[in-house]
């Protein structure tokens, strides 16, 4: 838990479809001064949240649809049963895997009693991350998501930037648009447009967003909505600012540190390249594991050799042509599963070797690692970049973990997290 305790029911209950995304939204809300409780995996029935904002991190983005729906419904029911005033479905700012977002939104709409008075907002935009939506098209920087490197995810590649079309293919509800020309007029005009869409039987409203002020408008228009959906941006705007918040802690730099990376995003590739210029990194690909090599054992031997002199890296991170070759050889799912299980085993071994500061790059990878380490609940501590923060697990080792979302963080993030003087941290 971050920021003290609260006996009142949570104002916002967030169901996040991956672990790094959960930390992203959690740290954005914490930076805005809210008390945030972050839980990994389906919450136990007897757990009692004690914060303004409760984030439940699931690994449902690429799960089979029925599992994604079942787990999301379970988490949302748990949050509503504990009095959550508003529900938020958190997905990626690049709208990863709409095939799961659609049915999960349908199930949560039914559960939350989305009453037909207004459609549920669909807002992946986070302008500060370069994700904007115009005329219902998702952009990354100055490119449509379908033309940007960020759209070439190993598991969920995107060839269509039109959000309404993507979502409509995965739901029976009608999907509409709140165009920027309306959003820019303010919250009252936006709320009226949502009412009008409801009158036309629209269940989901994609919203154009070009800047943070547009998010604030949507946040104000959706304040009374029982269910809202989007990335970290709209969640921050929904609750507004609550003050400076409590001070955040950071791990001691003397603690042994390591990074395990399964993210193949362009950002992670560059962050790792810069880290590798300073510290050793063991790299592998899943065909090595499939060939029967004890890759986890080799990686741990490598780590034990180098940990005495500083942090080390273990990575499957590779450029798109290598990932394509690996996937062609093994199949997409087997390749991913071999990477994730190897990195989870490596993480466990690193903890055994004394690592107490562990950076994990990639959402799927984080899900696998956190589950293997048995981390169920953490407090969100010092941010190292927007949406990327250290978390502290008081009930599990390695105590300090930093889950880095694939596309987030500046090129020096790994250096700053594991090597730089703490005063240099943001
Ligand atoms: N060399 C490789 N060959 C094939 N698949 C790989 C390789 N390296 C990683 N992968 C797989 O690619 C996927 C990367 O997804 P992951 O969610 O971990 O990173 P990301 O998408 O960059 O991060 P985020 O979800 O935070 O945006 C994982 O399932 C991983 O197992
Ligand atoms: O919005 C994002 O890109 C991240 O929070 C995320 O979901 C990473 O998996």
TrEMBL record:
<dbReference type="GO" id="GO:0005524">
    <property type="term" value="F:ATP binding"/>
</dbReference>
<keyword id="KW-0547">Nucleotide-binding</keyword>
<feature type="domain" description="Four-carbon acid sugar kinase N-terminal">
    <location>
        <begin position="12"/>
        <end position="238"/>
    </location>
</feature>
<feature type="domain" description="Four-carbon acid sugar kinase nucleotide binding">
    <location>
        <begin position="258"/>
        <end position="414"/>
    </location>
</feature>
<keyword id="KW-0418">Kinase</keyword>
<comment type="function">
    <text>Catalyzes the ATP-dependent phosphorylation of 3-oxo-tetronate to 3-oxo-tetronate 4-phosphate.</text>
</comment>
<dbReference type="GO" id="GO:0016301">
    <property type="term" value="F:kinase activity"/>
</dbReference>
<keyword id="KW-0119">Carbohydrate metabolism</keyword>
<comment type="similarity">
    <text>Belongs to the four-carbon acid sugar kinase family.</text>
</comment>
<dbReference type="InterPro" id="IPR050007">
    <property type="entry name" value="OtnK"/>
</dbReference>
<keyword id="KW-0067">ATP-binding</keyword>
<dbReference type="InterPro" id="IPR031475">
    <property type="entry name" value="NBD_C"/>
</dbReference>
<protein>
    <recommendedName>
        <fullName>3-oxo-tetronate kinase</fullName>
        <ecNumber>2.7.1.217</ecNumber>
    </recommendedName>
</protein>
<dbReference type="InterPro" id="IPR010737">
    <property type="entry name" value="4-carb_acid_sugar_kinase_N"/>
</dbReference>
<keyword id="KW-0808">Transferase</keyword>
<dbReference type="InterPro" id="IPR037051">
    <property type="entry name" value="4-carb_acid_sugar_kinase_N_sf"/>
</dbReference>
<dbReference type="Pfam" id="PF07005">
    <property type="entry name" value="SBD_N"/>
</dbReference>
<dbReference type="Pfam" id="PF17042">
    <property type="entry name" value="NBD_C"/>
</dbReference>
<dbReference type="InterPro" id="IPR042213">
    <property type="entry name" value="NBD_C_sf"/>
</dbReference>
